[in-house]
């Protein structure tokens, strides 16, 4: 698995672990490295845990900005009413869409929607897809159009 670091399966496992670490961090005041060790008996390569901890820290550091983006696209919904797993899935998706340019945006949205369906409630996939789609249209697609117009 070590040589699969850039594979879709590896990246998906990292995202799922990040979701779990973000969720646990909401309730436990322990260093992320310790949470990772407590939650996972690592049969996976160490790079998976390392990547998940690193990404989780980056999301936590940008949480305020990410949450503002989530709130901007909520329609008839209160931020506090969003389930924890949906919030964490959105945070991962927005982080990857806005701050990581190494992933194809539509692939990110697809993968995060899959995670929200797996870990969330019945309508989580639709909800997360709607918010991430709006973020894509307003941040990524708009930026791409502006760049083309200026060339």
What does this structure look like?
The chain is mainly α. It has two domains: 1-61; 62-151, N-utilizing Substance Protein B Homolog, Chain A (Orthogonal Bundle), CATH 1.10.940.10. Helices cover 74% and strands 0% of the residues. The longest helix has 27 residues, at 124-150. The radius of gyration is 16 Å and the shape is globular. The mean pLDDT is 88.
Describe this structure in a few short sentences.
Helices cover 74% and strands 0% of the residues. It has 7 helices and no strands. Helix 4 (63-72) crosses helix 5 (84-99).
Ordered list of secondary-structure elements with their pairings:
Blueprint: H1 8-27, H2 32-39, H3 46-61, H4 63-72, H5 84-99, H6 105-119, H7 124-150
Helix pairs in contact: 1-2, 1-3, 1-5, 4-5, 5-6, 5-7, 6-7
- What fraction of residues sit in β-strands? under 5%
Q: Segments where pLDDT lies below 50 for 5+ residues?
A: none
Instruction: Supply Rg.
Output: 16 Å
Please give the CATH class of the largest domain: Mainly Alpha
Task: Give me the number of helical elements.
Answer: 7
The N- to C-terminal Cα distance equals: 42 Å
- Number of discrete domains: 2
> Which word captures the global form?
globular
